[in-house]
Amino acid sequence: MITKNLIKSLEEIGFTYVEGATAEKGHAYAIYGGYLVSVYESAGNKVAYFNFKFPDSEENDIKKYNMSETFSNELNEYSVSDYTLSEDGMRVFCTGNIPLFLKLIDRCVSLLIENEIRDSEYCSKCGNKFGSRKPKKVTYDKENHIMCEHCALETVEEISNRAAEDASDEKKGNVGLAIICSTLLSLVGASLYFVLYYFLSPAMSESGLNEVRYIFCVVGFVVSMLAYYGYKFFSKKAGPCAYITVAVNSLLFTAIGQYIGIVFEFIAKNGFNLSALSNKHFWLVHLRNTIPADVSDLFTDYSAIFWKLLIISLMFAAVGAAIFLLSLHDKSAQKKETVEIETITIK
Ligand SMILES: [Zn+2]
Question: Number of helices (H) and strands (E), helices first, in the chain?
Fold first, then answer.
């Protein structure tokens, strides 16, 4: 993501804005002060990435030390929250406003020049000078890399190989098994309600802790987690099948679990034998209020508490399912990151 104001300010100093596949993937770039710089925003930080070849060597270790010494004294001045210097360049993260961020970019450029870091005349991968040949700009993960043709093609191949591996990993999944596993684990989740209500709840209410049943509703979240991981174990592919299976299993088995739980709690608390379950009233009393209105003051309405607990449980299950499915969606969206290659001219 990158805000309109930042784009405007960057364009004034010669940057080009590139729209991404989604708003989040937009970035700006320029050959600025002799370096290929990419700018984007990430988690509340403005990020500037300076791409250059910076191999591990004794000479560079000294430069690295010098730069981090200079920089660490100025971190506060420029609101720098983090910075990295690695083999393929330098990244600075800034929490300050736009004017301060632009000043920081200038400061970085002067720091790179002072330390005689190879600029955009050189390939950022093999370190060779371009000379009369035109360099390639290779873009992935919102960041641009300047390379010679050979290195650019090699990088594109590496990235597309990786993407193909990821895709075949996705294909390897078995949707049928994923649905079965998700369903079975959801059932395990539902049976947690039984355990809690049948074994724990009677003991708790003897010690006057009846309200503990509201805490049991958290099991709805556990059911959604089991539904999700059960599915993911056999298929990592985000799609309608994953969304429907996880959402339906989360809600359905939470509802079943909550219902079974409350029926068995009734049996346990009232000292009935399990064979009483063959009487359909044990199953129905929680679902509807059968007490005539004129004597309702004298009796407890069993169904009211069930519906209340059911709604809370379902809310936990729905929130859980939404969180897990969004993370699955995000992960698969990230994988679809593409690599682009373009020939550029350095003025
Ligand atoms: Zn190269």
Answer: 11, 9
Neighbours of 106 (CB within 10 A): 12
pTM, two decimals, is 0.63
Separation of CA 186 and ligand 1 centre (Å): 53
Q: Give 70-129 pLDDT, tens digit per residue.
A: 888 888 899 999 989 989 999 999 999 999 999 999 999 999 999 999 888 999 999 999
| Ligand 1 centroid from CA 49, angstroms | 19
**Integer Cα distance of 145 and 89 in angstroms:** 9
- What is the whole-number distance in angstroms between the Cα of residue 130 and the centre of ligand 1? 9
- State the distance from the centre of ligand 1 to the C-alpha of 128, rounded, in angstroms: 6
Q: Which domains, and CATH codes, for the chain?
A: 4-168 (3.30.1460.10), 173-335 (no CATH)
State the distance from the centre of ligand 1 to the C-alpha of 121, rounded, in angstroms.
11
Residue 347 CA to ligand 1 center (angstroms) comes to 20
Segment 33-50 shows an average pLDDT of 93
Cα 96 to chain centroid distance, Å, stands at 25
* Bridge partner residues of 50 (DSSP): 37, 90
Report how far ligand 1's centroid is from the alpha carbon of 53 (Å).
10
Q: How far is the CA of 125 from the centre of ligand 1 (A)?
A: 5
Instruction: With H, G, I as helix, E, B as strand and everything else as coil, classify residue 122.
Output: strand
